[in-house]
DNA sequence: ATAGATTCCTGGCTGC
DNA sequence: TGCAGCCAGGAATCTA
């Protein structure tokens, strides 16, 4: 499941390959991935030069010379990969392919097909992109900010951290891992989190995301970076996907429950 | 206004 | 061994 570190890895891999290339042709194999009218999409993408590739939250932003931006969201199983010339495409779930210069390609592959691609002129055309909260590694995300957001809410801290309007880029894996590192139970209501705990949590989020970025993200099942390679943060997970296995810190079995409709992993002994 | 439930989708896993 | 049925989850949409 691509979250901030995975999406950032993809962007870093793609940026040097894509900048300066021109999209010569687009092959839409699964039309519902494209959120625009297909005709409009093609008119605004074909023959355009890619001038920048960046990220905001879990969104990939491919900026074109005509001022429009092609926004890609990978959702569950999407993968955006650069395929150099003369290299054979072996994707089994290819949904959209972009022909670039000299026979190279940009491939969008997606098993469960939840991902989306949309061409926009303004960020406000995608409300969930426009209303994203702060990036966890920016200075504007800190303990005071997190405390102010948690304090006024009566839902679980797990669901609050999954809310992209409060903090951008976290998903199920990094929320569970950050809460373990901060020693906070995911079921705690936002309003019960003390200032000191919010500070600890904000630091745990920054630490978890930074470390995952350094490991090239987590490949739990499907994730691949912009070169089609796996990440390695799955070797450093404390709780995610470890239900019933012994806690790495204390040895007691990791609990797996459901919160906000998501599988939630935590240690009853380490997290209060 | 706010939060919880439902929906989309396919492959992998479980258990009979 | 085979296969039905369950489970995974980001975010839009619906419901309470």
Structure description:
The chain is of the alpha+beta class and 272 residues long. Helix content is 26%, strand content 20%. It has helices at residues 4-18, 38-45, 127-130, 143-151, 157-162, 172-181, 195-214, and strands spanning 25-28, 50-56, 59-64, 69-73, 78-83, 94-99, 105-110, 116-120, 255-259, 262-266. The strands form three sheets. Strands 1-6-7-5 form a four-stranded antiparallel sheet. The chain has a four-stranded antiparallel sheet with strand order 2-3-4-8, with helices on one face. It has a two-stranded antiparallel sheet with strand order 9-10. A hairpin with a 5-residue loop joins strand 6 (94-99) and strand 7 (105-110). Helix 6 (172-181) packs across helix 7 (195-214). The radius of gyration is 20 Å and the shape is globular. The two termini are 27 Å apart. The relative contact order is 0.15. The model has no long low-confidence stretch (mean pLDDT 93).
């Amino acid at each position: 499941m691509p979250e901030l570190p995975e999406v950032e890895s993809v962007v870093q891999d793609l940026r040097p390959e894509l900048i300066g290339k021109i999209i010569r042709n687009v092959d839409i194999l699964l039309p519902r991935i494209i959120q625009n009218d297909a005709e409009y999409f093609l008119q605004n993408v074909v023959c355009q030069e890619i001038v920048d590739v960046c990220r905001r939250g879990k969104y990939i932003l491919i900026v074109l010379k005509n001022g429009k931006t092609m926004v890609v969201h990978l959702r569950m199983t999407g993968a955006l990969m650069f395929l150099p010339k003369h290299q054979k495409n072996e994707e089994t779930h290819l949904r959209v392919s972009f022909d670039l210069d000299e026979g190279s390609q940009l491939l969008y592959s997606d098993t469960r097909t939840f991902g989306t691609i949309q061409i926009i002129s303004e960020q406000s055309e995608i409300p969930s992109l426009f209303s994203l909260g702060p990036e966890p590694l920016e200075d504007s995300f800190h303990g005071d900010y997190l405390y102010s957001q948690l304090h006024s809410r009566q839902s679980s801290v797990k669901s609050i951290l999954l809310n992209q309007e409060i903090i951008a880029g976290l998903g199920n894996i990094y929320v569970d891992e950050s809460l373990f590192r901060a020693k906070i139970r995911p079921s705690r209501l936002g309003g019960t989190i003390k200032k000191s705990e919010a500070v600890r949590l904000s630091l745990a989020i920054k630490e978890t995301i930074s470390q995952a970025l350094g490991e090239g993200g987590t490949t739990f099942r499907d994730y691949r970076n912009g070169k089609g390679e796996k990440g390695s943060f799955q070797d450093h997970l404390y709780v995610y996907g470890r239900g019933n296995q012994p806690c790495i810190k204390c040895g007691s079995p990791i609990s797996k429950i459901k919160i906000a409709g998501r599988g939630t992993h935590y240690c009853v002994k380490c997290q209060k």
